[in-house]
Amino acid sequence: MSSSLSAVRTASKSIDGLVQQRYARAVAQGALLFTESSVYKHREQGEVFEVRYVPVLAKKPSSKPKEKQHTKDFVNPFLPYDERLHVKRLGTSHHLLLNKYCVVPHHLLITTAEFRQQGEPLSELDFKAVLETIDSLSSRNIVFYNSGEESGASQPHKHLQVLPMPEYLDAPPS
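User: That's the sequence. What structure does it adopt?
Assistant: Structure tokens below.
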């Protein structure tokens, strides 16, 4: 493949501009609630860890995702999702959304298009959605999955989180 064709192919598959555009629009429309946080770097045995302190989460009520969905006031934020937060469809099985409660700009969520339990093991389709997402972003990202209440999961609808990796890190944190 020629280098010019390769450059065009890479540029056409990048969704960076789309994410930035949707983020700016969602902020202007009040669809995002940016949560202030403080970052601390901790060095342990030669490794640098980034710890993000989010004071508002201390006030977050304890949540059991499986029980939450059976309460009469439960509203699934991903079905239907807020159109102002939608970035793109990922195949037929997932959506890429902006995180309404972001702790960093461009904090994304990969959500299942149909309801799946958050505690379920990740499927091949979940991994395909992750690969499609990280392959279409030019920056490096960290993807994680809170799969139970002990890990901080608060929504019963299956979703993975995608955070841009800070530029000062030359490798994913340990």
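The longest strand covers residues 38-44.
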